[in-house]
Structures are given as structure tokens and as C-alpha cells.
Inverse folding.
């Protein structure tokens, strides 16, 4: 029986086999955004950008799976399953719910990364739980999971838009300066997620929840 189990483990795909050994050491990191080249550099795709940067730095590639593109990275014995939902922003919950069940993870091992117009550009906020703050992606995840007791990292994109232009703003492209700044912001978010899994959420929040200098004010 032991040999049979070992053989089954070897035959499972390396990236997405069930985390049976220690699910507490595995995390689903869902970066929110919209699929399609036309959305690649938009503010609403901040979550996708962070995951793309992490995968690139780790020399791994995303693979198209059910409800989204997936990649796996490791750090200090932890496994992070990076999910970019293909369901579009407003239906992000379907993808998150499916992969949380597939990977058999508890809610405390879910981290969602998204944009936030309520924060100035360059501001990053990690929370262990909370409201959706008017963000449709977070709202759908909460509805699908039946709980808001999971971590989220909000990346400030500012709110420099006139009344009634919110949608155009969030699906609008970052400026050249902002895109350059997103490199540092992504690195900081990735470091925060690693801290979340190693030193704990509270200490990770103390480190991550600082403001990056606005790119328009840089020398």
C-alpha cells in the first residue's frame, strides 16, 4: 500500500498535486485582473502584474488551467500557487472557490492581490480580513466563499478621475512613470506575501503597510 501511494504521488503533475502532506504550508495567491492584451497595462490588472513579476523572478511559467492561469513557486518550504483568474474581474470568485477546494486550503491560506482606487498610488495595504471596499472582484470572492475572513493586499492606484469616469480610469493604462514604479511595488508585495507565510500576518502587515513615494514627485 505504501509503495502504491508513492507511485501515485510520482504520477501526479508536479505543479498541482494535492497538498496532502502539509496543507498549512501551501498558499493560494490570487492576483486579480482581466484577461486579454488590451488590459495588460491597466490599473485594474495590478494583481496580475505582481504575479507575473513573481513568476518571472522565479523562472516559472503560467499554465492555462481551469478558471485561470496557474504557476507554482516555493520559498522556505512553503508553496505558493499563483492564480490569475480567466473569469474577468467581476467573477473572480468562481476561480478562487474552485482552486481553494482543489488544493484543499483553509481560508487563512488565501491571499488576494488587487488594485484600490481608495488609496493613493504607491500605497500598499495588507489586511487579514475585511470588507470589499466597493471592489467588485473582492465582492464576488466574498460571495462565493461565504466569508470575508481571508487576507487581501490592496495596491493603491489613486482616484484621479472625474465623476462617472471610474470604470474608464481603472481599465485605463498606467502612465510610464507609474509602470516603472510598479516594479518596486510588485517586489514589495511579493516580499510581504513571503513574510505573511513565515513571520506571520501581523508582522508582515507592519512591514508592508508603508507608502511608496508618488512617482510624479520623484526627482
Amino acid at each position: 500500500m505504501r509503495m502504491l501511494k508513492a507511485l501515485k504521488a510520482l504520477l501526479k503533475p508536479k505543479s498541482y498535486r494535492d497538498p496532502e502532506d502539509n496543507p498549512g504550508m501551501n498558499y493560494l495567491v490570487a492576483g486579480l485582473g482581466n484577461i486579454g492584451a488590451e488590459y495588460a497595462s491597466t490599473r485594474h490588472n495590478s494583481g496580475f502584474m505582481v504575479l507575473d513579476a513573481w513568476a518571472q523572478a522565479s523562472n516559472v511559467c503560467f499554465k492555462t488551467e481551469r478558471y485561470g492561469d496557474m504557476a507554482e513557486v516555493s520559498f522556505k518550504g512553503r508553496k505558493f500557487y499563483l492564480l490569475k483568474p480567466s473569469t474577468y474581474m467581476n467573477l473572480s470568485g468562481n476561480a478562487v472557490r474552485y482552486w481553494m477546494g482543489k488544493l484543499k486550503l483553509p481560508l487563512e491560506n488565501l491571499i488576494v492581490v488587487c488594485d484600490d482606487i481608495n488609496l493613493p498610488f504607491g500605497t500598499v495595504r495588507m489586511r487579514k480580513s475585511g470588507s470589499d471596499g466597493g471592489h467588485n472582484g473582492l465582492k464576488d470572492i466574498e460571495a462565493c466563499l461565504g466569508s470575508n475572513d481571508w487576507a487581501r493586499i490592496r495596491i493603491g492606484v489613486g482616484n484621479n478621475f472625474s465623476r462617472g469616469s471610474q470604470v474608464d480610469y481603472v481599465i485605463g493604462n498606467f502612465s510610464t512613470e507609474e509602470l516603472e514604479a510598479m516594479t518596486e511595488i510588485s517586489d514589495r508585495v511579493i516580499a510581504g506575501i513571503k513574510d505573511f507565510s513565515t513571520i506571520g500576518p501581523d508582522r508582515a502587515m507592519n512591514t508592508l503597510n508603508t507608502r511608496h513615494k508618488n512617482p510624479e514627485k520623484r526627482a
Remarks:
- The chain is about 35% helix and 20% strand.
- Residues 9-20, 215-219 have pLDDT under 50 and may be disordered.
- The two ends are 66 Å apart (CA to CA).
